[in-house]
Amino acid sequence: MSKVAHTAQGRISRFFDILGRSMIAAGLLLLSFVAYQLWGTGLSEGRAQNTLAAQFVTQQPTKPKFGGLVGRISIPSIGLSKFVVAGVRLSDLKKGPGLFAGSPLPGQLGNVAIAGHRTTYGAPFGRIDEIHDGDVISLESDNGKFTYIVKGEPRIIAATDTAVARTTDPTTATLTLVSCHPKWTASQRIIVVATLDSSIAPTQATPLASPTSLQEPIRDGWFHDSAAWPLVLLLGIVLIAIAVIAIISSRRGLNKIFVYALATVFFVPILFFFFTGLSRLLPTNI
């Protein structure tokens, strides 16, 4: 074999070697990101829920503020017990289920509309499709504990149908739960409707905000949070630099186990924050 052919064969071999390693690395990063979405986001939601739990016991607000505690929702049939926050912005739903602006508070006349994630950030409404007619939903707040009875089976509606979160009959007390459908997408919505137990007398509504400022469930598209770009780019560069330094150091004779162990100590936490920033650039869904 000529020297030229041998050199060409070596280049092709190195190319496929680099390509194979790159694909393996990309696959591992993708799996890591999926794991972050499924479980990593639940860590931040868990911390927020612990904070809300402490507030629920010691200092429940008489008038909730956006992002703050509203009360607790419990659905025994699907094993759900979560603290509800005021608002359905992305930052609100990272903490737990959120009360729509314009909604009355638990136990009041009107439609108490609550949205929640179905797959990420603790997936409070992950089993919303398993709720059935006659199931009990309890809402607890500073004003007491209120029982709602589910009327009918879960319904699928268009993602643009925001009327379900509004009060259409101010003389009755209802509850509407809203989440994405099917799981992993935001193309539609799934809702559950319940009415206040007839043995409980509802009070007059004091809406979270004016109905004219009603917030819709989040459905922003790709790259909607431009403020996340600097963080993502910076951390991406840092991750690449760590990987390159580790590879070069190991090839120069340093102990590979020591080098890669040390690199991992820095790489993993930075990767976590990188994924946090990257999530802000993805299409939002609940």
Automatic annotation (TrEMBL):
Keyword Hydrolase: yes
Cross-referenced CDD domains: Sortase_E
Gene3D superfamilies found in the cross-reference section: Sortase
Pfam family, one: Sortase
Keywords on record: Hydrolase, Membrane, Transmembrane, Transmembrane helix
GO MF annotation: an example: hydrolase activity
UniProt-listed InterPro entries: Sortase (IPR005754), Sortase_dom-sf (IPR023365), Sortase_E (IPR042003)
NCBIfam families: sortase_fam
Protein name: Unannotated protein
